[in-house]
Design goal:
This protein is α+β, with helices and mostly antiparallel strands. 35% of the residues lie in helices and 21% in strands.
Length: 616
């Protein structure tokens, strides 16, 4: 086989396949160049999802004629110090973006250097370059890309729909906008609604940009993160566990100002929320890692989406520790969206029966003693107009009772039992228990609905974690050891982890083939279903990898224990028990959500309740 030199055009198309995956890749490269050029405004226009046209205009420093001619050659850059290839202080540095784009599209560049009287232009059509010519332009650069991948039709066929490509471009612009709140970004085109992120400044600049990109709900439910460990700094905002999503699209990581989608960082974020969320929900966060450029390699992938840390364990530990510490500082706080969702469900709906006979035959139909209120058969399902006498007639207790529907099982308390002072505490004073599962508490300016099982589950779990950290988990010995029959593989897993389970207060041992003997259980659990507890722990251990760290494994199992040891749904509570639960929630970190990421309580403000009844 004869070895031959590839042509320049083929080399550029191969490079384009690495750098330019889709229209969003082009936008990323061009906008990063504009940011590196110190632009304060970047305008982006697209058509047909970027397939037919992309245009990026900035007011940066621009280029002169000589720089423009070199910019479209491979491996030409002003951003890299050849004496230190790891000292990368800019977003772009490889010098491949423009020639790669020009080899697979129609590329035109107009630029005018700051302080220059003349602008310059050049075009590249499928790799063929024109001469640099003078042009009229304001200070900055305008780059237009048309007919992307027209030289590689096979690549064009693999692009997604216009809507999907438009969404990918939007995501790229949002990530870059989050990283640079001092720059104004606009994104327009006939295939999209306009996005305009105004420039922000001052101490609230980042939070202002986050609100523009992610909405006010995230801002209201976000916790500020600011931590340093061995010259690595983590800043940004992470949402409360109860404010979550079904995918990872709302997770934004930046390393030295560079947007990345790195698995190490995403895994660390997932681990930080492992105590608070189920495996099917995902946290929402905007986090910035600032680290010495020599401690991170940003050149491990042509698109620079992945990075490699010299000390990955340090960065992972910083992310997990900082987020968990911030969560603990929030106390019992829960997401504000719970109240608004509850109010939406409570909105009054008009009653409109389909047929008169349905309404008249209903067992809950009220008994009318005044003819003026009785349904008029001649008018179908409507009512006759009441007479003035009916308005003047007083409503008796018996008539009010007759108009009520079936009652729910509530447990109202006497006024003597209601603690007026407790109403001024964050979670208020218990007023009632309904359906033996939900506690109704009155606060100073509204009411709180608490899920007693979910709340107590979190309290038990936090106590187990504290006891585990102190190596002081109290146990209770069973009067008669419980023998539990299990599949042989489950018995093997439990026996292999018997020492670790004993640290949580669960003492067990093998009892012949296919059986486990439980002798002691954690005292915090009280009376519990030992058989169900051991079966659930065996299932948990089956899902955990053998290499899972000891502490993470114990916390995972502790969460299962807490579920079994908490107040069960359907248990009636006395007033003092309900109030004690509320006070414990106020004093316990992370009590705003249960171990599965669900909220433990919902708060409704009095002003919102009054709106439901038209009082406001």
């Amino acid at each position: 086989m004869t070895i031959r030199q590839l042509t320049e055009g083929t080399i550029n198309r191969i490079a384009a396949g690495e750098v330019v995956e889709r229209p969003a890749s082009v936008i990323k490269e061009l906008v990063e160049n504009a940011i590196d050029a110190q632009a304060t405004r970047i305008d982006i226009v697209t058509a047909s999802g970027g397939k037919t046209m992309l245009r990026v205009t900035d007011n940066g420093t621009g280029m002169n004629a000589e720089d423009l001619a070199l910019a479209v050659e491979r491996h030409c850059t002003s951003k890299l110090d050849e004496s230190d290839l790891f000292d990368i202080q800019s977003l772009g540095f490889r010098g491949e973006a423009l020639p790669s784009i020009g080899s697979v599209a129609e590329l035109s560049i107009k630029t005018r250097q700051l302080g220059s009287d003349t602008g310059w232009a050049i075009t590249i059509d499928g790799g063929s370059k024109s001469a640099v010519t003078p042009t009229a332009l304001n200070t900055g650069t305008q780059i237009e890309v048309r007919n992307l991948f027209f030289t590689t039709p096979a690549r064009l066929k693999f692009l997604k729909s216009d809507r999907a490509e438009t969404a990918a471009i939007t995501d790229v612009v949002k990530r870059l906008a989050l990283a640079h709140p001092e720059i104004r970004f606009s994104l327009t085109g006939p295939d999209r609604t306009m996005l305009d992120f105004g420039a922000a400044s001052g101490d609230e600049a980042l939070l202002s940009r986050i609100t523009q990109v992610m909405g006010k709900e995230f801002r209201d439910n976000a916790i500020a993160i600011d931590a340093v460990r061995e010259d690595v700094r983590l800043t940004g905002f992470a949402a409360l566990p109860t404010f979550n999503r079904s995918n990872t699209l709302q997770q934004f990581f930046f390393v030295n100002g560079r947007p990345v989608r790195d698995r190490q960082l995403l895994g660390a974020l997932r681990a930080a929320y492992s105590d608070f969320q189920s495996k099917h929900r995902h946290p929402v966060a905007v986090l910035f890692v600032d680290i010495d450029s020599h401690q991170v390699d940003v050149n491990v992938h042509p698109t620079k989406a992945d990075v490699r840390f010299r000390d990955a364990a340090l960065v992972r530990g910083l992310i997990i520790g900082a987020i968990r510490q911030a969560m603990a500082a929030t106390g019992h706080r829960s997401a504000t969206t719970g109240g608004s969702e509850a109010l939406a469900l409570l909105q009054r709906r008009p009653f409109a029966p389909d047929r008169p006979s349905d309404w008249q035959q209903s067992p809950f139909r009220p008994e009318f003693h005044d003819a003026s209120f009785a349904p008029n058969p001649a008018q179908g399902s409507g009512f006759s107009a009441p007479s003035q006498a009916s308005y003047d007639a007083p409503m008796t207790n018996s008539s009010f009772a007759a108009m009520q529907g079936p009652s729910t099982d509530t447990r109202p308390m006497q006024d003597t039992q209601f603690d007026q002072q407790a109403a001024y505490l964050p979670l208020g004073a218990a007023r009632a228990q309904i359906h033996e599962n939900y506690i109704i508490a009155q606060t100073e300016d509204g009411l709180v609905i608490v899920d007693q099982h979910a709340a107590h589950e979190r309290l038990v779990y936090e106590r187990l974690k504290v006891a585990l950290a102190k190596n002081d988990v109290a146990t209770q010995m069973l009067l008669i050891p419980d023998i539990i029959d299990l599949p042989e593989e489950d018995v093997d897993r439990l026996e292999a982890r018997a020492h670790e389970l004993s640290e949580l207060g669960l003492h067990l041992e093998r009892f012949g083939p296919g059986a486990i003997c439980v002798r002691e259980t954690p005292a915090l659990l009280g009376e519990t279903d030992v058989r169900g507890l051991v079966q659930d722990i065996a299932d948990d251990l089956a899902e955990l990898d053998e290499s899972t760290r000891l502490v993470e494994r114990l916390h995972y199992v502790a969460a299962t224990m807490a579920c079994h040891g908490s107040v069960r749904s359907g248990r009636r509570l006395r007033a003092e028990e309900m109030n004690a639960l509320l006070r414990d929630m106020e004093a316990t970190p992370n009590s705003g959500q249960c171990n599965h990421g669900r909220p433990t309580y919902v708060e409704l403000k009095l002003a919102d309740i009054e709106k439901l009844f038209g009082r406001r």
